[in-house]
Amino acid sequence: MKKLLGIVCVVGLAGLIVACAPKASKDDCTAACQKNVDLNQPKKEAAADPAAAAEKDFAAKIEQINKDKEAALAAIDKELADKLAAVKEAKPPKKGKAKPDKKAEEAKAKLNAEYAAKKEAKAKEFADQIAALEKGKAEMVEQAKAAAAKAAEEEKAAREKAVAACAEGCVNAGVKKSVTDCQQKAASAEEFAKCVK
Predict the structure, then answer these.
(1) What Å distances lie between residue 135 and 24, 124, 131, 146, 192, CA to CA?
(2) Contact between residue 77 and residue 111 where contact means Cβ atoms under 8 Å apart
(3) 89 contact partners, CB below 8 Å, separation of at least 6
(4) What pLDDT score was predicted for residue 2?
(5) Domain layout of the chain by residue ranges
(6) What is the rounded (10 degree) CA torsion for 136, 140, 141, 146?
(7) Phi then psi for 31, rounded to 5 degrees?
(8) How many Å apart are CA 23 and CA 176, to the nearest integer?
(9) CA distance to 27, 82, 144, 148, 162, per residue, from 155 (Å)
(10) What does the pLDDT look like over 4-58, one tens digit per residue?
């Protein structure tokens, strides 16, 4: 009988100790919930740099414009060369020193000036296209950065909301401190799930 009474006392004392085990504080629950969210969050790939994506997108366009510009300026140069070659110079006299042909020189000077203006106008046209692309690229980078910042803020707010709801449930359920301590040490979601009572 004494032995039975001893067993009942030991079992009763163990039950009392378990019942009196300290409950987790709100901070303990919050830390455990943060660990749970971290362990169950899918691993995400590193976000692409929005500036790099815009650079890549626009680099090809700018390169094409530069090629088109070179081709257009080369065509103007060829047209000028053809016209300069077509300018007829006076035939030199059969005897004596040849005098420079002023008419031919004036015609060539006029052509050179005309085609220099054409080249300048064409170069400006392409420079304007490149400037418009650069502006578009800058706007695209800003939009991408703003979208990434907004997504990060939304993700942070959702995480904070999930942790707060979890912590409140933990406190209301009266989870023991030993459980939250175990959960905080868990290295995987499986280990976390094993931390009960």
Answers:
(1) 56, 16, 6, 17, 51
(2) no
(3) 101, 104
(4) 46
(5) 23-42+49-86+101-194
(6) 140
(7) -65, -40
(8) 4
(9) 22, 66, 16, 10, 11
(10) 333 333 333 333 334 567 998 999 999 999 999 988 887 777 667 777 777 788 8
Under 8 Å between Cβ of 170 and 13: no
Q: What are the helix and strand counts (H, E) for the chain?
A: 6, 0
Cross-strand partners of 23: 176
Q: What does the alpha-carbon distance between residue 37 and residue 48 come to, in Å, rounded to a whole number?
A: 24
Q: Are 148 and 166 in contact (CB under 8 A)?
A: no
Rounded to an integer, what distance in angstroms lies between the CA atom of residue 33 and that of residue 164? 8
For the chain, list residues with pLDDT below 50.
1-18
Tokens coding 185: 């040490």
Distance between alpha carbon 92 and the CA centroid of its chain, in Å? 70
